[in-house]
Amino acid sequence: MTQPREAFTPKTQEHNRKHTLAALLLLVPAPSLGTAAAMFWWPELLAGKIIFLASKIWLVLLPVIWLRFVDREPLSWSPPRRGGFGLGIALGLLITLSIFAAYAIAQHYGAIDPKMVAERAARTGLNRPGIYFAGAFYWITVNSLIEEYVWRWFVFRKCEVLLGGKAAVIAAGLAFTAHHVIALSAQFNAPITLLASLGVFIGGATWSGLYQRYRSIWPGYVSHAIVDMPIFVIGYWLIFS
Prior knowledge:
Layout: H1 10-13, H2 17-27, H3 29-41, H4 46-69, H5 85-108, H6 114-123, H7 129-163, H8 165-185, H9 190-214, H10 218-240
Helix pairs in contact: 2-7, 3-4, 3-8, 5-9, 5-10, 6-10, 7-8, 7-9, 7-10, 8-9, 9-10
């Protein structure tokens, strides 16, 4: 395997800023378009599903293509040489507790309508237990890895080139949040969408910070997978209870 270069090197600093901005413009809007097509524009049509799938494929392929043919850097599996798993697990558990606390408060004040959530889940077939559990397994194990690869390894590093470390954490967190706002608004009312979107941003910024510190996607992936679990537990309660 080729020697990875995860560190933010002087060569990266000299990278063409226009190319970096182009990479972000080509990638960041794609999941928002795919999510809108699948959940708002054509939720019951094949076209919506095709666009959603195409956006997922684009997210996976573009970073690799860009790395090899534009940046001309070697591929890497992002080895966790600096560790970071303990902090990743701790942050994942902390965010998990925050999610359950926010859910309990929302339930106490009647801010979540389970009937509405179940009706909206039916539009995409998530009201069927088999599909729900298959989707949960995919999102927790596979999708969270894809998102760390895309939003931390690729998008955060590009934001780092343009903005520097601290600002890149915020920018990458906002980019990560954008398509989640669309997905959440398809399932929940405006106050819950706003609250959950804030949680997504905190998660995205946290995992960007982990990548910035440890230069590996794996501590963030472990944390991300932990955080996804309570989301699907709560989703199950709302849809099937």
